[in-house]
Amino acid sequence: MNPQGEVTRLLSAWSSGDAHALDELMPLVYAELHKLARYHWSSQPKGHTLQPTALIHEAYLKLVNQGEKSMASKNQFFGLASMAMRQILVNHAETSMAQKRGGGQEHVSLSEVDQAVRQEAKEVLALHEALTALQALDARKASVVELRYFGGLSIEETAEVLGVSTITVTRDWQAARAWLAREMGVGNVSE
């Protein structure tokens, strides 16, 4: 069976409740997941402490423990993995901010790495808060941002996952980026 067909078969088995199918699936999609994690990691500020491999492993654990996992395509799987990575980055940022406020740990000093981690945490939390607000206003636009920014999916792949046209995704992407930029007080949210 070709690798694409095997991925589809394993996704179907996993969606049907076969927990071992995810174990077989991961080696087939690991390279793509690593590329996705590197994409997220490269857009983080200098000194980011969560490495791409750790991000993949954390996402895997989230996927294993996830209840609802019905999906029809490889792109939907990567969308789900992307959302898991987003939540991991948000949790990591929240932990960093808690440590900043004391978090039960002794405060050492403000080194360059410490400042970068705090800045990263603030940015991730600001994006998370803005996305949560966007979700309340327009869930599809928020999904487009998650899939494009966190998932690294193309316009076409995002359209397939959401079941809408590429024109709709393009409009939603542009509108959502402008809204997020205004909401976060930045010039523009990256492509």
Q: Could you explain how this protein is built, in words?
A:
The protein has 191 residues and is mainly alpha-helical. 74% of the residues lie in helices and 0% in strands. It is globular and about 45 Å long. The model is unreliable at 106-110 (pLDDT under 50).
What's the short story on this structure?
With 191 residues, this protein is an all-alpha fold. 74% of the residues lie in helices and 0% in strands. The termini are far apart.
| Shape annotation | globular
- Look at the helices and sheets and give the structural class: mainly alpha
For the sheet with most strands, the description reads: none
Q: N- to C-terminal separation? A: 36 Å
What is the number of helical segments per DSSP (H or I, 4+ residues)? 8
Give the arrangement of secondary structure elements:
Blueprint: H1 3-15, H2 19-42, H3 52-64, H4 74-100, H5 112-137, H6 139-150, H7 155-162, H8 166-184
Key words describing this protein structure:
191 residues; single chain; 74% helix; globular; mainly alpha
